[in-house]
Amino acid sequence: MAQPIKICSIFKASRSIYNKEKRRFLLFILSAVTFDLLATLATQLPDEYIPLQLLISFSLGLFAYPWVYQQTMHCSLSILRGRKEVLGKAWKFLLGWIALAAISNIIGLSISVFPTTIWTTLVNKHNPIIVGALIKFPISFFLLVRLGFILPAIAVDDPYDYSLAWRMGKNHSFRLVISALPFIFVSVTALVLMELIETNKSAMSVYSWIMAISIITGTTSILSIIGYSTWYEKLRIRYETIQPAPTTEPLTESQD
To answer: What domain range is 145 assigned to?
Structure first.
């Protein structure tokens, strides 16, 4: 039985990838920081600008973020493979992006409904949304980690399907989740800080915090994608290596 892939090897490989194309990855980080800043600033707009806020959020979610994430995955995998890989079609990546978000959220929501109902009925009737979110988030996150390998596959035009993405992560679920915890920690911390600064009366202080949070979240997201692309490549190689070779029937001479 093959030895499991160690998290430290993923971190080392990711650091090596970043160092080989530092300027390009810094450009991706700058793009992600800008997108996070725009998304956060949009939430600060007055109520009369809600249509503009929705337009910004829609544009970032469907075009800006998928573009920078696909470019990051493509660059990372090209470095790992030592050759310039074909860039997958953007519309396929976008469809995969939407489908992955829909599947993880729908399944997570469906599973969380029953325990949330039991909790709010028998234990505490208050804050059912918070209880549901606490149950749904780990489920959706786990599905994203396991099924998300379709995205790096699409980014470099590899063959892909959801069952293959799920099988690739077999026996590595815990390590995948652990390696993604820094990104989750930063994201949750950013949400908490944004809630706290809403009560701050100093506009200059608010925008300083928004800028700082955007820099941290944008940087962490790109570094996490480099790591996730590294996971994909190592697990893909391992999966293809351990697959049994197709059996062929021995040829027999035809008899007259």
So the answer is: 89-171
